[in-house]
């Protein structure tokens, strides 16, 4: 398996399956044609005429939109047409930094093809001139890719927190990292992809951070989402990436980017180097 195959996996979708979804004239996402047909049963909230779906203009405030869409989703959950509620709200924006047009339950984000944001933290150690990374193993009861390998810390970006606040929260919960240590994490870039999923389109944006941790530090999970941590040589991680899908689907993008930035992948030895550099940001 080539490294580029992980990027192709994260950018595999069929545009013909989807119709554009807009709010107040803003292109916000995309819904499957089948889901659009189901939304037609709620004409007081959605307009489904023509080759697009839009929220009714009468829903003129973020609060009104949030309440109306949640009411529709609750009806659809009861009918098995929408994913189970997670109870965590995401902001719905056209561009990062915009004020939210509405809030929506995290589980419903791909149903409307809304861009989701998240934070990923590479925790690494320098030892004898070599870099090792702390890799998490996802708990067996995780809904998405149970048991797969993951970054030391990663999490979706909820409403009500800025990126740094979320990174500190996730670092404490997932790896037992104290706030003063998490504060030292360095923002190093943004990655993106767009892929089909069980419930719809996933156009995701990942804000990536690096944190060099002390040699005597060992991460410790506190929220039950991680079953174990292991400190791995970069070469061993690359071997895993080149020999299957041991990692959660989007984690290889973060690791490939890390290896490029730290000179662990070279344009002299990696024939698809340019494709990798471009590919980890293909969905932005």
TrEMBL record:
Alphabetized Gene3D superfamilies for the sequence: Nucleoside Triphosphate Pyrophosphohydrolase (3.90.79.10)
Domain of life according to the entry: Bacteria
Residue span, Nudix hydrolase domain: 104-257
Coiled-coil portions: none
InterPro entries: DUF4743, NUDIX_hydrolase-like_dom_sf, NUDIX_hydrolase_dom
GO molecular function: 8-oxo-dGDP phosphatase activity
PANTHER family xref list: THIAMIN PYROPHOSPHOKINASE, THIAMIN PYROPHOSPHOKINASE 1
UniProt-recorded name of the protein: DUF4743 domain-containing protein
């Amino acid at each position: 398996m080539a490294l580029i195959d992980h990027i192709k996996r994260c950018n595999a979708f069929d545009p013909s399956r989807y119709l554009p979804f807009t709010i107040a004239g803003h292109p916000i996402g995309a819904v499957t044609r089948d889901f659009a047909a189901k939304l037609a049963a709620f004409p007081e909230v959605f307009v489904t005429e023509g080759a697009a779906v839009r929220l009714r203009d009468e829903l003129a405030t973020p609060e009104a939109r949030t309440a109306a869409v949640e009411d529709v989703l609750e009806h659809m959950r009861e009918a098995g047409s929408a994913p189970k509620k997670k109870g965590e709200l995401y902001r719905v924006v056209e561009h990062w930094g915009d004020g939210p047009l509405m809030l929506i339950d995290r589980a419903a984000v791909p149903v409307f093809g809304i861009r989701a944001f998240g934070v990923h933290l590479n925790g690494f150690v320098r030892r004898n001139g070599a870099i090792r990374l702390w890799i998490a193993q996802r708990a067996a009861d995780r809904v998405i890719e149970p048991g797969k390998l993951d970054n030391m810390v990663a999490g979706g970006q909820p409403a009500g927190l800025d990126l740094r606040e979320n990174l500190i929260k996730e670092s404490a919960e997932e790896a037992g990292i104290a706030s003063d240590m998490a504060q030292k994490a360095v923002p190093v870039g943004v990655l993106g992809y767009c892929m089909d999923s069980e419930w719809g389109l996933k156009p995701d944006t990942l804000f990536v951070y690096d944190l060099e941790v002390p040699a005597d530090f060992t991460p410790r999970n506190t929220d039950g989402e991680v079953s174990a941590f292991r400190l791995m040589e970069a070469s061993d991680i690359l071997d895993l990436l080149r020999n299957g899908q041991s990692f959660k689907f989007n984690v290889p993008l973060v690791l490939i980017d890390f290896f490029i930035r730290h000179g662990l992948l070279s344009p002299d030895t990696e024939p698809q180097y340019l494709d990798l550099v471009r590919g980890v940001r293909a969905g932005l």
